[in-house]
Design brief:
Number of strands: 19
Order of helices and strands: HEEEEEEEEEEEEEEEEEEE
Structural class: mainly beta
Number of domains: 2
Mean pLDDT: 89
Protein name: DUF4397 domain-containing protein
CATH class of the largest domain: Mainly Beta
Keywords: Signal
CATH topology of the largest domain: Immunoglobulin-like
Organism: Hymenobacter armeniacus
Helix content: under 10%
Number of helices: 1
Largest sheet: 5 strands, mixed
Length: 245
C-alpha cells in the first residue's frame, strides 16, 4: 500500500498536537475559590407589608413576603452593601454596609423602627457552634414595634418564672444561650417583677398561653418578636420560633 508524503507528514504532527493539547489543559489556571460567609434574610417589617428583595452588592439573594425568611445564602467575604428593595417597583428602602467574614454565619432582619413606612436593617452574628450534649441554644430578637422595651425570655415554672436571657432592648438581640433540651413553656416577659407579655407556645405565632414546645438537643433557635399594634392580625405583635440549624 502506498502512503503519500502528505499523509506521513500529518501522522508525524499528531503526537505533537496531542502533547500540546494535553499541556494546554494542564496549564489552565484553576478557578479562584471565592471566600464567603452565609446570611439568612428575614422580612420582619410590617410597615412594608409587601414583597421585598434582599440584595448583596446588587446581587439578589431573596424575595420575601412579610413574616418569611430565607435559608442561609452565600455572600462574598469582605465589606458588603446590603439593600432592601420593594419587589414590584425596585424602590430602595434600606442601604447598609456590613462586614462579612469567611465561613461565618449571620442573620439580616428588615424591621420597622416606628409606626411609619420607614424600614431599618439589623445585621447580627449567628454563632452556630453546636451546644453541649443534651442542650439546645436559644436567643431573643426584639423587633416588636410598640412592645415594652426591654424584653427577655423566661421559662415558666410551677410558681413564677426563671430568666433565660438578659434584657433585650428594641432593635437588638441577645446572644445565644444554652438551655436543657426538653418540652416546656417559654414566655417573652418584661418588667420587674417579670410579667409575660407574649407567649412562644408552639412557636408558630399563635400566642397560645398553654401550649408547650419541644426544644431538641443540638438544635439552635431564634425567638423573634415582630409586628406592631394593628387591627390586621397578620401585622399584629406576635412571637415566632425560627430554627437556625
Amino acid at each position: 500500500m502506498k502512503t503519500s508524503f502528505a499523509s506521513l507528514a500529518f501522522q508525524a504532527l499528531l503526537p505533537a498536537a496531542v502533547l500540546l493539547a494535553s499541556c494546554s489543559k494542564k496549564d489552565e489556571p484553576a478557578a479562584p475559590v471565592v471566600e464567603q460567609g452565609q446570611v439568612k434574610f428575614h422580612h420582619a417589617a410590617p410597615s412594608a407589608n409587601l414583597d421585598v428583595k434582599f440584595l448583596a452588592d446588587d446581587a439578589e439573594k431573596a424575595t420575601l413576603a412579610y413574616g418569611a425568611n430565607s435559608g442561609y445564602q452565600g455572600v462574598p467575604a469582605g465589606s458588603r452593601t446590603l439593600k432592601v428593595n420593594v419587589a414590584t417597583s425596585g424602590q430602595n428602602a434600606v442601604t447598609q454596609s456590613v462586614a462579612v467574614e469567611k465561613d461565618k454565619n449571620y442573620s439580616y432582619f428588615a424591621y420597622s423602627p416606628g409606626a411609619t413606612t420607614a424600614v431599618s436593617g439589623l445585621f447580627v452574628n449567628d454563632d452556630l457552634t453546636a451546644p453541649a450534649s443534651g442542650k439546645a441554644k436559644i436567643r431573643l430578637v426584639h423587633l416588636g414595634q410598640g412592645q415594652a422595651s426591654p424584653l427577655r425570655l423566661t421559662q415558666r415554672l410551677a410558681v413564677g418564672s426563671q430568666a433565660i436571657t438578659a434584657d433585650v432592648p428594641f432593635g437588638t438581640t441577645s446572644p445565644f444561650v444554652e438551655i436543657n433540651a426538653g418540652t416546656y413553656n417559654i414566655d417573652v416577659s418584661a418588667g420587674n417583677p417579670s410579667v409575660a407579655v407574649l407567649y412562644v407556645g408552639e412557636g408558630n405565632g399563635s400566642g397560645s398561653t398553654t401550649a408547650s414546645k419541644n426544644y431538641e438537643s443540638g438544635k439552635i433557635y431564634t425567638v423573634l418578636v415582630r409586628g406592631y399594634t394593628s387591627l390586621d392580625p397578620n401585622l399584629a405583635s406576635k412571637v415566632v420560633l425560627i430554627q437556625n440549624n
